[in-house]
Design a protein that fits this description.
- The chain is an alpha/beta fold.
- It has two domains: 17-46 and 157-327, Rossmann fold (3-Layer(aba) Sandwich); 50-155, Rossmann fold.
- The chain is built from ten helices and ten strands.
- The strands form two sheets. The chain has a six-stranded mixed beta sheet. A four-stranded parallel beta sheet has the order 5-4-3-6, sandwiched between helices.
- Strand 4, helix 3 (106-113) and strand 5 form a beta-alpha-beta unit.
- Helix 2 (76-88) runs parallel beside helix 3, helix 5 (162-178) packs across helix 6 and helix 6 packs across helix 7.
- The longest helix is centred in the middle third of the chain and has 21 residues, at 123-143.
- The radius of gyration is 19 Å and the shape is globular.
- The protein starts with 16 loop residues before the first strand and ends with a helix.
Amino acid sequence: MIQPPPRFSLAQLPTPIERLPLTPDPDSGIEIFVKRDDLTGSVLSGNKVRKLEFLFYDLLASGARAVVTCGGVQSNHCRATAAVAAMAGVECHLVLKGKEPKTQSGNYFLSKLFGAKTKFVSEKEYEEDIDGIMRGLAGKLRAQGKKAYIIPEGGSDPLGVWGYIKAFQEIKMQAETAGLKFDTIVTAVGSGGTFAGLYLGSKITGWDIKTLGFAVCRDTDHFQRRIFDLCLTVQTELNADLKLDPSEINIDDRFIGPGYARIGDTEAEFIRNIAVNSGLVLDPAYTSKALLGLFAHIAEGRFAPKSKILFIHTGGIFGLLPMAGKIIKR
């Protein structure tokens, strides 16, 4: 029996699974269900808190009194990290990609509200050396007598992926209780940890189910390498043979749109239509692009008729607020 690492209980679990009353191909009999991980909490809503349960346990056990992490200006991960840090009495430092916004709103506003200290770097600097930048900041904090704990982008490291190994076990239990047999689990992919956890969960539990990811930044090759490396590391730490197969890391990078956390008319219209016709709110960085991709796959006939698909709603509603003018036009 594989035992997970210790963690704090921060998320409101289990999150519900609901049927989505929409499909791009009604004649196919394909059903879409939504795992509502946007309901893991209030300011802790979204998928990131599942990873932070493990990471903050390790952080406090290490004796660190400061945390350094990174993301985009409207990063859900940074907002959730800032919230947990405030709860734990830990100093929070965020390295953010891009320019400081003129007005504070959405996730950035909440991160500042929780007392996070921010450092902005250019997109080029971020992509080329974000890990080095965070190590440099942690070194400066150590020089001030503050032991700092670094959490990588999205909390996606071998410890953070346990958040979605546990989530997969939760899904399996819910499906068995409800008598549902899902054929595929679908998720957005921004740093790889959620996909890696779901894939590892399927291997650990022996539940034969496909995982499909839609990239919201970077390309398929990057994520296939990144996710498989994460999975190999966890497998080594477990001293187990999980029969990992790189060909099973299925990532589609066709729906990134204008770029990470950027939307165009297609994404804005999709967000509006889903909200009006189902009451489900999607975010501009992750879920709108992943669900758009899933709808395209169904329309393209990539799923067998009568398939049951589980879509992971990874949260991000606060990131929607700065986009209001693009989504609801007067």
